[in-house]
Amino acid sequence: MDGLEPKDTADSAPSVIDRYFTRWYRTDMKGKQCEDHCILQHSNRLCVVTLAETHPILQNGRAVKSINYQISNGCSRLSNKVSGKSKRGGQFLTDFAPLCRITCTDETEYTIYSCIRGRLLEVNENILETPSLLLEKPATEGYVAVILPKFEESKSITENLLSREQFEQVVSKRGAAESQPS
User: Where in the cell is it found (predicted)?
Assistant: First the structure.
């Protein structure tokens, strides 16, 4: 057949994430180098908070020891309860509201933040039982939380976030700065 063989369509088809979600990024959360978060925004306004591939938890073969959604004595993200079509009762989050604290086996602790304003719809309880999901599938089964921005704010929530291209520029500048002799 002239050396032309049909390409495997699974290799060229975009993933569900790439097809239905727009990736947004927040770099160096709270001024902490490389603590990058990724927000997957669906066309229906839902936003899924995940770790960006550059986050220290996903680097250097780290392992997760524990994940804690208990933010303070009076606030646990696990006690969040939403009901009804308008998702009443969900905790309201600001841009820098902590979602959880992740402790690695080397005892380093990272706080994961919401990055956007909105109502907390759910936290991923699966990562409590299987913390390795955070490392193995951070953009899918290892997500941290789902947030619904207010309708009137859904267009403006991305103003403080970086697009994929902008994020890649920040990461490449970081790499260039690290490779510079001091």
Answer: Cell projection, Dendrite; Cell projection, Growth cone; Cell projection, Lamellipodium; Nucleus speckle
